[in-house]
Design brief:
Blueprint (H helix, E strand, L loop, with lengths): L3 H12 L32 E6 L11 H4 L6 E5 L6 E6 L16 H18 L3 E4 L4 E4 L2 H11 L22 E6 L5 H13 L3 E8 L1 H5 L6 E4 L6 E4 L6 H22 L2 E6 L5 H13 L2
Parallel strand pairs: 3-4, 3-6, 6-7, 7-10
Antiparallel strand pairs: 1-2, 4-5, 8-9
Helix pairs in contact: 1-3, 1-4, 3-4, 3-8, 5-7
Length: about 290
């Protein structure tokens, strides 16, 4: 368990400056469970929220006769919604995520796991249920769930495929989801996942994690490019001649990701491992509220 501690401690430290994140205003029946905090919207719960004027169709038992007796209007006593929202997190297990261009930079997998776990800390501390997609960890709350997630995210990637693909069909209908990856593999798998998510009422956020070298392409002269899994290899004597074509294709991939997210009602952002992790977590905080 000692290997889990560094990731968990980094995630806790990253989450510390932020208030509790409430992930959900949309509560579909398939993803509802009793929670411990309110959502400032009417619904099932024990905590009083507000009075409102009675309307045609309200049941007589819903009328607060004591409050109504002090005026000429009948009032209904509303309670706060206290259902927890399910959030499913997917961190790309592909070998491409093992890349780091310099020893001073974290691997993409490590940074993605740190951000994902920090977001999970905020979500669970806010009363939400969080799980890991493709890990047999359905959404649950509590500190034990955080430990399970940390253990799963510290897994060995050596036997993973070159590029991972999320599976939205494992996510509860009406839930929210977070996908973190470099998204440099076949985009058809992601397109299918986001389409399936939209069809099942799943909204979420997509974080593309790239190494600074993947963004700048600082290569020149004779260079051997090899994938982290060794299945893809390309040698060139003039790497600099590839820069413009590479940057064009990378820009096209980013545009495609933005378009897929827009079509599915998701949010997209890009994060570089050379940047601090905190801004990405802050973006997630706002993004989850935008897809409410």
């Amino acid at each position: 368990m000692s290997a889990i501690a560094p990731l968990r401690s980094r995630a806790e430290a990253l989450a510390a400056p932020f208030p509790a994140l409430l992930a959900g205003a949309r509560h579909l029946a398939a993803s509802m469970a009793a929670g411990s905090h309110g959502r400032r919207r009417p619904g099932q719960g024990d905590e009083f929220w507000q009075y409102r004027a009675a309307q045609p169709g309200d049941e007589l038992r819903a009328v607060d006769w004591r409050r109504s007796g002090r005026s000429d209007t009948h009032f209904v006593r509303q309670k706060e919604w206290q259902a927890a929202q399910s959030v499913s997190v997917w961190v790309d297990p592909g070998q491409s995520m093992r890349f780091a261009s310099r020893a001073s930079l974290p691997r993409k997998a490590d940074r993605a796991a740190e951000i994902a776990l920090a977001a999970s800390v905020l979500l669970i501390h806010g009363g939400e249920r969080v799980g890991l997609n493709d890990h047999g960890l359905p959404p649950r709350g509590g500190e034990v769930q955080l430990m399970r997630m940390a253990q799963a995210l510290e897994r060995d990637l050596s036997r993973a495929p070159e590029y991972g693909v999320p599976n939205a069909r494992e996510i509860p209908p009406g839930a929210r989801a977070l996908f973190l990856s470099d998204f440099l593999g076949d985009i058809d798998g992601l397109r299918d996942a986001l389409t399936a998510a939209a069809d099942r009422g799943i909204s979420g956020a997509l974080v593309q994690v790239l190494d600074p070298a993947e963004e700048a392409f600082p290569f020149d002269g004779r260079t051997i490019f090899e994938s982290m899994g060794g299945s893809i290899r390309h040698e060139t004597l003039k790497a600099g001649d590839l820069r413009d074509r590479y940057l064009d294709r990378l820009a096209a991939r980013k545009d495609a990701l933005r378009a897929l997210c827009a079509a599915a009602g998701w949010q997209y952002t890009l994060h570089h491992t050379g940047q601090p992790a905190a801004p990405a977590l802050l973006w997630l905080y706002a993004a989850l509220e935008r897809v409410a």
